[in-house]
Design a protein that fits this description.
Length: about 625
């Protein structure tokens, strides 16, 4: 058995483990079921990647995020670690080959979505896998009362019968005590070792700003607080518009990110932001999972998040380097009504769910009884146009159908073109002799990509092939398609679309067994999360960090000393009016210049002092500047 510290240093390039990681790894390697709560940025992936490399056999990693599993797989492969990912973007043949490599090769990590566990091809290969560890990432998805329930997570428990004695590691960054208890129960953890890293982030200053003009306040905050920033919004359109407005109208370098962009575009924007070529990332909640940028100084929520779990996970992307960072919510009185309307949209009626299911069946032209396990490219915009639907209610209905285990809706992922030669070396040679028109093309492919084409699917670039063979790209694609039809090769062109998988055979909408009591219970849990969010916004007396810790079942200090509420409480011990008068005694100042003389988080108190002095005639405003009277 290899040393974990040596693996951490040699493979991953880290000098030391983060808090909790080493203890979690030791528990897993001792054969214990383990529950680990590591807040955002705590380094969950190391907790199963290091054990995977310490021992013989395969580590099975179950995760709901396709983009994240692809990213982790590619990163591990670049480090020389054999890892594969199974997801809806792969063909049946690709999945078969990947599972063969897991069963008979020396693959160390197999990533898969929970929905994959019940597929026939996966079930057939389970007994052939030398599985030594099962890791469940985003384990809160198993809880119906959590904020991200995935019904397929309930089937993970069945793996225990296939791999008795194999430890299970459940990881999450966001779970209340109630959800934690459900994770342990529903995953069947036996006397688990439990590790909870505190939710406390003592370098994070939390604030809520009630404002009339969110755009003006956003620019003011970005002007006063330097460094990398994320601005979260609730719509794709708003992400684009605010980013362009910041860049073009305010000279603040910005880009935007949402699930509607192509995977290539998302990756390019993410890299530019991580490399500080853009200072601000304006994004929907599609952005953030797996993002490891330690020097984010500011996270602004331009729109109100649906709950404290989602909010704190996103806010926690600020200040991972341990230095002071800020998380600010911009709020308006109308936001409470908007949050309530969004909540209502997120919980559609049963009649609407059945209507959307029927529209889906018509969209894919599926007959009753067909379609089980089929993954089909899906264009939400085209879908809502065809059936005259509203995008947001339709999307939430699809998510609810997913929670009811009828469909699985994947994110848009970029799958590059791949190629595999189906023939043996001798059979391919005989084909080339008999089909001279394909000979030079096949020779070019072999010179470019070598003998690896005979063993597994290899990523190819049609543009690179075209340049090498000095022929147009469309003719390269035509040749590849011809060879595919002749079964000489298997050619799978690149794709960049989300997919819908029918988990069951297509049903008559009236036969869908929707459970009104369960849907009502989910709605109640969602309403509780919304009310907790509203209480956080309306809080003016208790420390914000303490309120967050209390929500997650953790005792906290009465005062963090950094949030807007704690700073306001300190106003009694600091005479801001006196400080303002002292500054104006030296020279008249604009409000902006005056505020710049104080720490940013003291802004509200300084402005209150200025209003008080104006009301009592201690100072006056002339020609845009504040003067002593």
């Amino acid at each position: 058995m290899q040393d974990p510290q040596e693996i951490l240093s040699r493979i991953f390039g880290y000098d030391r483990f983060r808090p909790g990681q080493k203890e979690i790894i030791e528990a897993v390697m001792a054969g214990n079921d383990t529950f680990a709560l590591l807040p955002t940025g705590g380094g969950k992936s190391v907790c199963y990647q290091v054990p995977a490399l310490m021992q013989e056999g395969l580590t099975l990693v179950i995760t709901p995020l396709v983009s994240l599993m692809i990213d982790q797989t590619e990163t591990l492969q670049a480090k020389g670690v054999k890892a594969v990912a199974l997801h809806s973007g792969l063909t049946y043949r690709q999945i078969e080959i990947a599972l063969d490599n897991c069963a008979y090769g020396n693959t160390k990590l197999l990533f898969c979505a929970p929905e994959r566990l019940t597929s026939a091809v996966f079930q057939e290969r389970l007994e052939q896998l030398n599985c030594r560890l099962i890791a469940v990432d985003e384990a809160h998805c198993v809880s119906e009362w959590g904020h991200d329930f995935r019904p397929a997570y309930l089937r993970i428990k069945d793996l225990r019968t296939k791999f008795p004695g194999v430890p299970l590691l459940a990881l999450t960054a966001t779970a209340t005590r109630r959800v934690e208890e459900e994770i342990v129960d529903l995953l069947g953890l036996q006397q688990p070792a439990v590790f909870r890293t505190s939710f406390l982030r003592d370098n994070l200053s939390l604030a809520v700003r009630m404002v009339e003009d969110k755009e003006a306040k956003l620019v003011e905050i970005l002007t006063r607080l330097k460094g990398s920033a994320i601005v979260y919004v609730r719509s794709r359109k708003k992400a684009r518009e605010i980013s362009q407005w910041l860049t073009l109208k305010n000279n603040i370098s910005s880009t935007y990110y949402h699930a509607g962009l192509t995977a290539k575009s998302r990756l390019e924007r993410q890299k530019m932001w991580k490399n500080n070529r853009h200072r601000v990332m304006v994004a929907t909640n599609a952005f953030g999972m797996g993002i490891d940028k330690p020097d984010v100084r500011l996270v602004v929520h331009y729109d109100i998040p649906p709950g404290l779990e989602a909010y704190y996970q996103e806010a926690g992307r600020a200040g991972r380097d341990g230095r002071l960072a800020y998380a600010v919510i911009l709020a308006q009185p109308m936001d409470e009504k908007l949050l309530q309307e969004r909540f209502k949209t997120a919980h559609p009626e049963i009649t609407y769910l059945r209507h959307i299911y029927q529209c889906l069946a018509n969209y894919f032209q599926l007959a009753v009884g067909s379609g089980k396990d089929q993954s089909l490219p899906f264009d939400l915009a085209g879908f809502v146009r065809r059936y005259n639907l509203q995008s947001l209610p339709a999307f939430h209905a699809l998510k609810r159908l997913e929670e009811e285990d009828l469909i699985s809706l994947s994110e848009a992922i970029h799958m590059p073109s791949v190629l595999k030669i189906n023939l043996s070396h001798q059979d391919l040679y005989e084909f080339q002799v008999a089909n001279a028109r394909h000979d030079s093309f096949i020779k070019g492919l072999l010179r470019l990509y070598g003998g690896q084409l005979f063993g597994d699917f290899v990523r190819i670039e049609e543009l690179k092939v075209a340049g090498f063979l000095k022929m147009p790209v469309d003719k390269v694609e035509k040749q590849l398609n011809q060879l595919h039809k002749l079964q000489v090769v298997t050619y799978i062109p690149r794709t960049d679309k989300p997919k819908i998988t029918f988990v069951t055979e297509r049903l008559n909408p009236q036969a869908i067994l929707l459970k009104p009591r369960r849907l009502q219970a989910l709605k109640k849990a969602g309403e509780e999360r919304m009310q907790a969010m509203l209480a956080y916004l309306g809080n003016h007396t208790a420390c914000r960090m303490a309120r967050i810790l209390q929500y997650f079942g953790e005792p906290g200090e009465e005062s963090c000393g950094k949030c807007d509420v704690c700073i306001r409480h300190r106003q009694a011990t600091r005479d801001y009016a006196r400080d303002v008068l002292a500054l104006l005694a030296t020279a008249p100042l604009t409000m902006q210049a005056l505020l710049a003389e104080f720490p940013w988080e003291h802004e509200q108190e300084v402005m209150a002092a200025v209003r008080q002095l104006l009301d009592t005639a201690g100072i006056e405003q002339k020609e845009g500047k504040l003067h002593l009277k």
